[in-house]
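Quick one:
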Amino acid sequence: MVPLFFMQFLFLTTLVGRAGCPLPAQPASTDSVSRYTVQDIGSLPVGDQWLPTSINDKGVIVGVALNGLDTMREKAFVWRQGKMTALTGSGGASYAREINNRGDILGEARGADAATRPLIWPSGKEKAPRWLSDKKAGHAYSLNQKGTALFSEGETFLFWPSRTALSLKAPEGKFVSLPHLNDREEVAGNFARLGGEFSATIAEQPFLWQAGKITLLPTLGGRSFCMGLNNAGVAAGWTETSERVRHACVWKEGVLQDLSLPEFRTSEATAINDSGIIVGHIYTQQIEMRAYLWKNGEAIDLNTRIPADSGWKLNYADGINNRGQIIGSGYYKGHQHGFVLTPSA
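Output:
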């Protein structure tokens, strides 16, 4: 899935550093992982797909209603207690990126001039967003539990509301792609460039920014990308070998930990919570995508943890909160839907 302002990734990595790689994760052999109830997050009158992007610890979800490939008609939404509501006040197409436990929602809007601007819907003000910048172009990236947001104006990255500029600059010919912010104001992201026939984002190097210092994260020698960061400073994502075999992984204290499964060629980690539980997806040999979870060195197909007669096929797991609730998308009775999984009591 490629929501508004997300970029589809074609990646090329230059190897920097040496990866420390424990044995790959093993399929779950115990019942240490919860079973889940699965709930359809529903729909709005606008859009043809409704995809979740973030869930807070209260179970409130934000996301985007897609309208085919028409990015000028996409709409941000919030979902709580089983009801989806459009986020308004942005004056054009909108996308909700993250929600924190306070209820603040970070996102972006695009006006008739197609310029993208970062904004925040403060808690309780879902019809009255605030612009993070008076500039006519910029991006919103991440929001922590303290209410600090990470956004950009041109090539400058700043914290909101302090407007403190970060000493975060990409090497010549590169740019910073999809950085993530935690409560310690650490940032994990990627140096990337545009390339290929469709000017896609090509990853060059994942990194961790801490108090003005950039640490380049090790890879397996191929294309690599960081997708999430928790409050312990552990980043999650994926890295490829020189043979372009993609491995889900985490980076902990600068060391790469391999989460891949030997029987699958491709796996990706997309999010990690503060307990170190990771979600993502794998591709089977039959090119079938399945939502996965990694916990305590075990890898679990989430399709095996929901009722067999649910009617669901879970493809993507895109987020997890500290209560263990998981958001993603899949197929319900043959149609694509967003879902939330809640651990069974």
